Amino acid sequence: MARSWLVPNGGWEVSSRVISGLVWAEESRRPEAIGKDRPRGARAQGIRYENALARALPRARHGQWWRFSDRAGPGVCQTDLVLVGGNAAMVLECKYTWDPRAWAQLEGLYVPVVGKALRRPVFGAMVCKILRPESRYEPVICETLREALEAAKGGRRAVVHWIGDGELGGQDGPSARAGGWALPSDSSGVAA
Fold this sequence. Notes:
By secondary structure, this protein is an alpha/beta fold. It has a domain at 40-64 and 78-161: Trna Endonuclease, Chain: A, domain 1, CATH 3.40.1350. It has three helices and eleven strands; from the N terminus they run βββαβββββαββαβ. It has helices at 41-56, 102-118, 145-153; strands at residues 2-6, 13-17, 24-28, 61-62, 65-70, 73-78, 81-84, 89-97, 122-130, 140-142, 158-161. The strands form two sheets. A six-stranded mixed sheet has the order 4-7-8-9-11-10. A hairpin with a 6-residue loop joins strand 1 (2-6) and strand 2. The longest helix is centred in the middle third of the chain and has 17 residues, at 102-118. The chain is globular. The two termini are 27 Å apart.
């Protein structure tokens, strides 16, 4: 289940949330009522990995907050990274170690919320440093964001295996570090 912050009766609480009946969504700032914690151990390691990915993709929106309302009421959530292209966007969920629970976050919360807010098609992919043996059965393991986007466009779950430094595994065109990666256009004229 994905984590989001609900706003029942003006208060805040962390809760599992899968979007149902999304009414509206928009970009937001970090709510003042949600404090910043100091991650330790494995969580801190994951945050360092996410920050390294953000540095490798300087054009991505890192840590963007989103407000939304669905059948369960209003809420907010925070994506790891979002790449926005001409007519589409891609949400990247960063995990130091592959975790199948990331799909619930991507598919059940982030992709619908970001799609509604940006009013364009949105695709999701997991980026992870360490693959687990069971990761070879379900998703498409990709070396580049372009491969992941193509897999996601085809309705498949995509994982980008990135070790945490340098380019994202043989990018086409300008280096990802220089911010040159963009969502490609397909033959239909829709950037995706």
